[in-house]
Sequence to fold (235 residues):
Amino acid sequence: MDGPLAALEREIVACRRCPRLVAWRELVAREKRAAFSDQEYWGRPIPGFGDPRARVMILGLAPAAHGANRTGRVFTGDRSGDFLFAALHRAGFANQPTSLHAGDGLALRDAWITAAVRCAPPANKPTPQERDTCLPFAVRELDLLEEVKVMLCLGAFAWDAALRVLAARGAAIPRPKPRFGHGAEYRPEPPHPLFLGCFHPSQQNTFTGRITPEMLDAILLRARELAGLGSAGRE
Fold:
């Protein structure tokens, strides 16, 4: 990948705008988890990943401290990612069902994965100021991904961030705001993409059955349908 998306990636990776997040991501990278003590942590902001011609943009919350903050790729190296990428493979968006590290051969087709906040936050809870500081990256990312038709929002935080992205792009957001829910859909005025809500594939949700593989499969198939994709690729 080169061009404007690559330039944006370099800018994201070099960002140090949020002192609390910088301190936390780097502390985690130094101290490490015992299971990964022999690995070099990424310890920097996480850029988006996927197909530059994506029709579906998947928006998460933030990197996991010992997942993407370790591996350097969004949703990679933790159980949330294991759950998500297995489903993406079943739905025809990924060439393999696993995402272990940045050089493992994973490729996405018709999908781009990113996060509302690019640094791992303490307790997985970014502040509103940190969210808003990071928001312009998602705005620019969406502008560059010119074929995106659907924003798949993983969780209420991502749904709210996506609405803020649309507002920053000049879209009129209705009042009351469209409410998040699993399977919720919102159709802003063109040329802005459709919204599709999905419970986040966090361990808290997957272990309790709040979201199951079958539920995620159905959402991804709906995303394909809304994006004008066939069962395994572009129509």
